[in-house]
Specification:
The complex is a heterodimer. By secondary structure, chain A is an alpha/beta fold. Chain A is built from 10 helices and 8 strands. In chain B, about 35% of the residues lie in helices and about 20% in strands. The chains are: A alpha/beta, B alpha/beta.
């Protein structure tokens, strides 16, 4: 190590320590003895969170907590399941029964919870890579079965935690750390995939549209069956900075300019292109018996049971 | 043809009772139901499919849930989720599916989630011989998921024992909070024999330790003093706990920056099995007193060794049989003891030499250990095992 480099590192360390001290002081000044309305729903002893400045996950989590408290649920009967990735950390921050499972497998885990105890409201809160890339098979099959789950999929078009690699949602031509010359694969449209697979509720919102997002979450939580809320969210560190959006705020400005609210839009034509509009709104809201209802009805007939 | 069996008498909650002429795989399913299993998630695979079929038929009759998943990744994960919702849950598979389950077997180990995984072994590698016997997954059972851990694996030798050990597997999984493996094989799974199902109330059923403290005092991975298994809350009870596949502290919170937490967690996951070896390990021994040669085997290979053992005894060789009912944790103490007493140890198994490595390790060069391998697709010819026993006894063999 050159002396110069050693000096730079020491300076960096000092800078980080100064920042941390500054944050601690600010935290004490802000927090004091007072509690935030959301504190009751958060594992305060796990904060600060791991998410980068400008990330949309804090907003998504805030909306989620708002929705949970307004959806008229018995919070003791709510279970939150996450897979792996930045979004996968949500389960660790929320003060409910919460499960941080393996990569891509949050949906089958949640299926087990729900089927074994139908009284539970089971929410899967995870990222696009987790849910529709490595976990894509479970995603489509749970939608097909219409298992009564609420899926909250935060889509930031890349694998953030591992440093901004391409995935199945990465738009064509996008630069990521594994598509240095541009992405040459057709991406999944997450909402369209869910709708095509049988989801009974599908909505998409960006994290700019917080009230609409929260309302969509409430509707999804109350909807029996497989419901999806796709959240379009900035990842300045992994994705945005490679596309002219150096900060989360830049991406929020993009959402403001390019977000097109069209309820009932043809979801299959609402794909997301680099630099294009983001169609958002409620795309699907239909009624279909859930897996458990369907099963119970069928078994009652087959076994001659009247003890429903 | 209906697979529905005749029922001389049915015990509580649709559980069978009495004597049956029953397929091994069916006996496994009935054992699970007797043990209190009310959740099965699986994916069809030869030669384990009959377990799923039987569960699909029988669980609705016993207020249980059968769900057929899209693959074995999902099957394993779904039973872990179900177990966290408070039920006893099981899946069953064979080689290729077992490989797919390894990742989430690790999740169940890390989360300390009781459940049972049955592997009706067939011959591999890969698709191998789907309908034919193998015992090639014994080391995978021990080491197949990444990272350090200990596991419990049982090896039945008949449909009756498959029934009995499936119950044991559930009890062990609940007591020690981990996935327990029933490592059977295509011969036992597809064998039809007499199976006796005892009355419901005579079957012992263990339940996982449960928290005795209110939610505000509960920490999901804190053990009571002197114990190695933490009490387990289940979802929906108001404990509002967190669990993760990440290395975690007593609160269940990720602790990924410090190897001290890793040390204490992994050490406890191993200790809860290894320090209870006496309680967990079960062996079946036959004519071990004064034996000059001991055959160490398990599952169907131990059963097919019975005839060559008889033949060797008829020739005047003193042969004992040590059958591993519990293969993992491995009965190290007993093998070390034997190594000081016998002339040689013979290990027939339907793989190219897996458990023989453990026997050699414990024999530590004190006695010769003779491997009798078989790549799978069939059972050992009696004369092959006989020849090995003769060689072990120092007799000339013309084979």
């Amino acid at each position: 190590m050159s002396p110069r480099r050693g000096l730079r590192q020491a300076t960096y360390r000092q800078r980080v320590m100064r920042q941390q001290m500054h944050l601690d002081v600010r935290h004490d000044a802000v927090a004091g003895d007072e509690t935030h309305p959301m504190d009751e729903m958060l594992r305060e002893d796990r904060l600060p969170h791991i998410w980068c400045p400008g990330c949309g996950l804090g907003i998504a989590l805030g909306c989620f907590i708002g929705a949970l408290t307004k959806a008229d649920l018995d919070l003791d009967k709510v279970a939150v399941v996450s897979g792996i990735g930045c979004t996968g950390r949500v389960a660790g921050y929320i003060k409910l029964d919460s499960f941080h499972t393996t990569h891509g497998r949050a949906i089958p885990f949640a299926t087990g919870l729900k089927l074994a105890n139908p009284e539970l409201s089971v929410i899967v809160f995870s990222g696009d890579g987790d849910l529709v890339t490595i976990g894509g098979n479970h995603f489509i099959h749970a939608a097909r079965r219409n298992v009564d789950l609420t899926i909250i999929c935060v889509n930031n078009f890349n694998y953030g935690m591992t440093g901004g690699q391409a995935g199945s949602t990465t738009p064509i031509d996008a630069r990521t750390s594994t598509t240095p010359y541009g992405n040459f694969e057709y991406p999944f449209n997450v909402s369209s995939l869910a709708a095509a697979s049988g989801a009974v509720y599908v909505a998409r919102w960006t994290v700019l549209h917080v009230r609409r997002l929260e309302n969509a979450m409430i509707e999804a939580l109350q909807k029996p069956g497989f419901s999806l809320v796709e959240i379009i969210s900035p990842c300045p560190t992994g994705f945005g900075r490679r596309h002219g959006e150096r900060t989360g705020l830049d991406t929020m400005r993009y959402y403001h300019k390019h977000g097109v609210i069209t309820h009932g839009a043809n979801v299959h034509e609402a794909g997301i292109k680099l630099g294009g509009d983001i169609v958002e709104g409620k795309f699907v809201d239909v009624d279909r018996p859930t897996f458990l209802q369907f099963r119970e009805d069928g078994l009652s007939k087959a076994l001659g049971r009247n003890d429903k | 043809m209906s697979r529905r069996v005749s029922r001389p008498s049915t015990g509580k909650q649709g559980v069978l009772e009495g004597e049956f002429f029953m397929l091994g795989d069916d006996a496994c399913a009935e054992g699970a139901i007797c043990a209190g299993c009310r959740f099965f998630a699986g994916y069809p695979i030869t030669p384990a499919t009959e377990i799923a079929q039987r569960m699909a038929l029988r669980l609705p009759e016993t207020d249980g849930i059968y769900v057929q998943m899209e693959d074995e990744l999902a099957s394993m994960n779904t039973i872990v989720g179900a177990a966290w919702a408070g039920v006893k849950a099981m899946t069953a598979t064979s080689g290729p599916g077992f490989s797919l389950m390894m990742e989430n077997l690790g999740l169940a180990i890390m989360m300390e989630c009781p459940c049972v995984l049955v592997n009706v072994q067939r011959a591999g590698p890969s698709t191998g011989l789907p309908t034919l016997v193998g015992q090639g997954d014994m080391m995978q059972a021990r080491w197949g998921s990444h990272g350090p851990y200990s596991i419990i694996a049982l090896a039945p030798t008949s449909p009756q024992e498959l029934f009995d050990l499936t119950i044991d597997a559930f009890n062990l999984s609940e007591l020690y909070r981990l996935p327990v493996l029933v490592m059977t094989d295509a011969e036992v799974g597809h064998m039809t024999e007499k199976v006796v199902i005892p009355p419901y109330d005579e079957i012992e059923r263990a339940e996982r330790p449960r928290p005795a403290v209110p939610p505000e005092e509960y920490e999901p991975y804190r053990c009571p003093p002197g114990e190695l298994v933490p009490p387990m809350a289940i979802a929906g009870e108001g404990y509002r706990f967190h669990t993760t596949g990440l290395t975690h502290d007593e609160r269940g919170y990720p602790a990924t920056a410090d190897d001290r937490v890793q040390w204490s967690l992994v050490q406890r996951l191993i200790d809860k099995i290894e320090k209870n070896r006496d309680r967990i390990i079960r062996l079946a021994e036959d004519e071990m007193d004064g034996a000059e040669v001991v055959v160490v085997s398990y599952g169907i290979a131990a059963r097919t060794a019975l005839w060559p053992i008889e033949m060797a005894r008829a020739e005047g060789i003193k042969v004992g049989l040590l059958r591993l009912i519990t293969v993992w944790p491995f009965p190290e103490e007993r093998i070390r003891e034997l190594a000081g007493q016998v002339k040689a140890i013979v290990v027939p198994e339907i793989n190219m030499g897996q458990i023989v490595l453990e026997v050699e390790r414990c024999a530590a060069g004190k006695v010769p250990v003779i491997s009798v391998p078989h790549p799978g697709g069939g059972i050992h010819k009696p004369e092959i095992v006989l020849a090995a026993i003769r060689r072990a006894a120092g007799r000339e063999s013309d084979l």
